[in-house]
Design goal:
The complex is a heterotetramer, with 2 copies of chain A (313 residues) and 2 copies of chain B (291 residues).
Chain A (H helix, E strand, L loop, with lengths): L1 H19 L5 H15 L6 H9 L6 H8 L1 E5 L12 E8 L2 E8 L5 H6 L7 H16 L4 E7 L6 H5 L2 H14 L4 E10 H5 L6 E5 L3 E3 L3 H9 L5 H8 L3 H6 L5 E3 L10 H20 L3 H13 L12
Parallel strand pairs in A: 3-4, 4-5, 5-6, 5-7, 6-8
Antiparallel strand pairs in A: 1-2, 2-3
Helix pairs in contact in A: 1-2, 4-13, 6-8, 10-11
Chain B lengths: L20 E2 L4 H4 L8 E3 L6 E3 H6 L12 E2 L1 H8 L2 E4 L15 H12 L5 E8 L2 E8 L10 H17 L3 E7 L7 H20 L4 E10 H4 L8 E4 L5 E2 L3 H8 L10 H6 L5 E2 L2 H16 L3
Parallel strand pairs in B: 7-8, 8-9, 9-10, 9-11, 10-12
Antiparallel strand pairs in B: 1-4, 2-3, 5-6, 6-7
Helix pairs in contact in B: 5-6
The chains are: A alpha/beta (313), B alpha/beta (291).
Bound molecules: zinc ion (2 copies).
One zinc ion binds next to loops of chain C.
């Protein structure tokens, strides 16, 4: 049966490529999806399945989460330095009766908007907009919610010229020092430094089929094995699923997804987390600032903690 | 005498099998070959030197001025009057159970006689005490895994606890792939330590040496109160080849070099190797408040 | 009823001789002519309207969407439910003894029935109290002299003292030449007040309306925690013509307009006039912590 | 005799233009300068004389002040955002036994360097570099010395695109909040917002023949009288000399200049102010932070203070 699944997935991949080229094979696609779905009830998904889900074009994007989760959302633009990055949506709105600053990496829906949003890959302006709005949240003592969904940092000339390394580095220190609670939810792809720049948070949650990794499986395979086509293999050894990260203690909560996760099924997911977000933020907000910062420090301090060998001077 | 006895246990330069200066690329991953024996070729102008002569020039090519890559121990010898290493032997880690990782690590350890890609300790530079961490681009491309992250974090915490300035010599190909997400989290771990140190008023000088790339650039390399770089140092986040593939054009010669970063506003000063010690001690004095 | 009695003395819209909307340029300094009587011409598309019709559209051209310039009183009427003016009559000033300045000031006062180019007071916007300052581009081009600087500073200080949010509608041709260095110092004076207010945790919303230029742009216009702008607003520091003379090329159409500033990252939001009140009250509620 | 001076000055101006075009008339220039000098002993200078002096190409520039005043100067570059502005020199060095952060607007010496330095006109990066170094001075509790010498803000496309208005505005609020002493010396031209962006300081000093104005006399004449050739007339009504500003209470100290102020005579001027700088900084540094900020606030609060008319409700 595992064999059959693999075959169906291969076929599906090819059909979807055709569909993307404008050839309508949607019926054939749906048929195989149904078959796959039936099979999967019995088999746990492997990492590559989750990679595919995490990247699915039908998967809800940050703007849809905001639409569904946040009331009276007011978007604010710009880094006050160079530009406004459409790959990052930032603003303020109500979750329940609490005003939050919300920052979302936005992949966009539809080809045109995906191009405009640079497929969720931030330029330095995007990190700096986020920093500005984070500092503002701190000034007004508002909790922050970050939605992470990015393939990773952007490999453009301008991004290097304008210091994306510096921009990410500054996001890390700013988040390290933020005196308000920060919750991050990885909703799709959590790729490399681009994801980390919004994830030095008091709690990091992941959607059930999201991934969080040091770089894309393709990039990993390319660097380590000189063969980017070995991405599937890479995804298995990289340990990038929500389940992996939860077992490492790097993720505080894995949010259950419906079988078919899309804009249609998003509201039920939102309802399952809304209260949790508000309550979690309130719990951290209740801490004295020193305790909040200490807790955040210790959370990350424990990651990759290595001890000295015994018996040494 | 380079390594003088102070408060901590002192160390000797190990009998390393590595050449004095390092080649541009990691030989294992890029398929290049370290020149054998007593000669070394300048990767910039092609000039061939006796390795011994390079020692007298601090590893700077006397023909073209190229600053060849140095091992961490040699760097420490050039910069400090006293160096007391935090004499740690860290547990081996393989958090992802990555196939072959232990073996690869062991081979680097054997070859370099070093435990990992960074050396940390308390240093004295022209009578100014500081905490010093020096990365080694030769150890698995200077990649950052949990041990490197832990040692640097401990160094930053030590600087905070003892109220000493902090200097980190960066040299890194980026995150260590074999440790996956654990490598990524080292960026966060170190950044938290640096922010806490900074809030306490600590001075952190970041020194960028060839190459400073990837996750190191996107964290502590760029978090210095002051950032100095050796001439010609490669400094970037994304790799040159990846960018070229993405934008489908060849990048200009000086792209991602220290001089380019200076012009773009990301580096405070470019400091030739033979002025590095004086520059660092000058900065330390200015921040110590005593002329 | 627009102006409802609250804690402070209330005011009435004065019987001004000024037209409801203002022309693009100051007639005295740029030699243009305010259209007389009941008609007004859209400076963007050239459409001619009955002035009365413009009132029903809040001064927005229904043909092209151009946001025509509004007088400060009209602006206040559109935005607030309650407005209690800080009913001040400031001393006249001519700190440089500039020839002809008093006479020019007197003519503007006579014509506008206003004392100076900014009106300040306590406002209620959808049940949210705040301190409001509204500049008037029609009063000597909305230029900033000592009186404007003083009134704005007093408003900021009041916001700090009463722990109220602050909203400033900017509209200015820049510093007032006739007061020379005194005008320049108003930028510093206001900035100090805003920084003190901000450190105390105050919220300041800067609203940019046509035109926001010169010293106002280089101070409080750009110091808002949040900066919103009306569509099409001219926002800049250096004047367009001066730049064109300097770089010897014609600038593109949208240069220095609100949409350009949004793209360049200097404006949080562009808000059409008919959404301004709702937007401001939404922001105030979000920062007041009560839905 | 005033007439004769004016004639000599007009001749001098024309001769200097010739000289600038590469025609050697230096002897004729020197002769007239000497004559002028002799005359000036008896007559007070008018504003335009000072404008000429403030702009004199031989007048010492910021880098020369630093060279002469500061020991162990270590220049630091860049705004960490976009670029390094050569029109602003920033760094740290010793004045006496005190470490200062020094920020100087630099016009440059010689045509080539003047072009590189953009004639002392900062781009937004320049203000942002200054801000960064000011915040750093604050972190390390170092006093700051600013040297102002700029014709004004730069009228370039990029400067507007990258928000020079925002940059100056941010300099003003940062200086307003700085918890370390700041001393500004206007050494040549103090032009408009570009000068103010380094002058929200605890003490503002001016060199005897420097100017400080809302904009250049040429710009003033052009805006108000539509005739930039009336700059000389404008300079008289604008009240822009050190003596004017001292009488307005906007300048705390006017520093005497030698008759011929140049790199040769600079050291004597430096010796006359070195101790004063150190002592002034020390005096402000001795204040509690709240007192320091309050003093600075009140200093500028009094400028253009207008009272309400009496007899009002
Ligand atoms: Zn060479
Ligand atoms: Zn129209």
């Amino acid at each position: 049966m595992k064999e059959k699944m693999k075959r169906l997935e291969r076929e599906l991949k090819r059909l979807e490529a055709l569909q993307a080229d404008g050839i309508d094979v949607s019926e054939a696609i749906d048929k195989r999806k149904l078959e796959l779905k039936a099979l999967k009830v019995d088999f746990p998904m492997d990492a590559w399945d989750r990679v595919i889900k995490a990247r699915d074009a039908k998967r809800p994007v940050a703007s849809q989460y905001i639409e569904s989760l946040v009331e009276g959302f007011m978007e604010f633009h710009g880094d006050r330095r160079f530009g406004d990055d459409p790959a990052l949506i930032g603003g303020v709105g109500w979750i329940g009766d609490t005003a939050f600053t919300i920052l979302g990496q936005e992949k966009g829906v539809g080809t045109k908007e995906r191009v405009k949003r640079n497929f969720g890959m931030l330029n330095p302006e995007g990190y700096r907009k986020a920093q500005r709005l984070m500092k503002q949240a701190e000034k007004f003592q508002r909790p922050i919610l970050c939605l992470v969904d990015t393939p990773g940092a952007f490999c453009g000339l301008g991004a290097e010229e304008r210091g994306q390394g510096q921009a990410i580095a500054e996001s890390l220190t700013i988040m390290a020092g933020l005196e308000v609670p920060v919750i991050t939810i990885v909703i799709g792809e959590g790729g490399s430094g681009g994801a980390l720049a919004m994830s030095v948070s008091d709690e990091v949650w992941m959607m059930e089929n999201s991934i969080y990794s040091i770089l894309s499986p393709e990039g990993f395979a390319s660097i380590l094995w000189k063969d980017s086509s070995k991405a599937q293999e890479a995804s298995e050894v990289m340990k990038i699923t929500a389940q992996d990260l939860e077992s490492f203690g790097m993720v505080d909560r894995v949010v259950k997804e419906p079988e078919e996760f899309s804009i249609e099924t998003l509201p039920s997911v939102i309802e399952s987390i809304r209260e949790m977000i508000v309550e979690t933020a309130a719990a951290y907000q209740a801490l004295p600032v020193e305790a909040l910062l200490k807790k955040r420090y210790e959370k990350f301090r424990a990651m990759g903690k290595v001890s000295e060998k015994e018996g040494m001077e | 005498m380079l390594f003088k006895k102070r408060t901590y246990a002192t160390i000797q330069l190990p009998k390393t099998k590595e050449p004095f200066v390092q080649t541009e690329a990691d030989p294992i991953s890029r398929g290049e070959v370290i020149p054998e024996g007593d000669f070394h070729k300048c990767p910039n102008c092609g000039e061939i030197f006796y390795a011994e002569i390079l020692k007298t020039t601090e590893g700077v090519c006397q023909k073209c001025g190229q600053h060849l890559r140095l091992g961490a121990r040699e760097r420490i010898a050039q910069i400090t009057d006293v160096f007391d290493e935090f004499h740690m032997r860290m547990e081996e880690t393989n958090p992802l159970d990555f196939p072959g990782y232990e073996k690869k690590l062991a081979s680097y350890r054997e070859r370099s006689q070093e435990e990992e890609g960074v050396i940390t300790g308390v240093a004295e530079i022209a009578e100014q005490r500081c905490i010093l961490a020096v990365m080694d681009a030769g150890f698995m491309m200077g990649s950052m895994g949990s041990v490197v992250g832990e040692k640097i974090t401990l160094a930053v915490e030590r600087a905070k606890a003892e109220d000493l300035p902090l200097i980190i010599f960066c040299a890194s190909g980026g995150a260590r792939m074999q440790e996956g997400i654990y490598s990524l989290m080292q960026m966060a771990k170190i950044s938290l330590a640096i922010e806490a140190f900074s809030k306490a008023g600590g001075l952190y000088i970041s020194v960028l040496t060839d190459p400073t790339t990837g996750g190191v650039t996107a964290s502590f390399a760029m978090q210095g109160d002051l950032i100095v770089a050796e001439p010609g140092t490669l400094i970037g986040f994304a790799g040159r080849r990846v960018i070229e593939q993405t934008i489908r054009q060849i990048l200009p010669e000086g792209f991602q070099r220290a001089e380019f970063l200076l012009e773009k506003g990301f580096v405070d000063r470019i400091v030739p190797r033979n002025e590095m010690k004086e520059t660092l001690s000058g900065i330390l004095r200015l921040h110590g408040g005593i002329r």
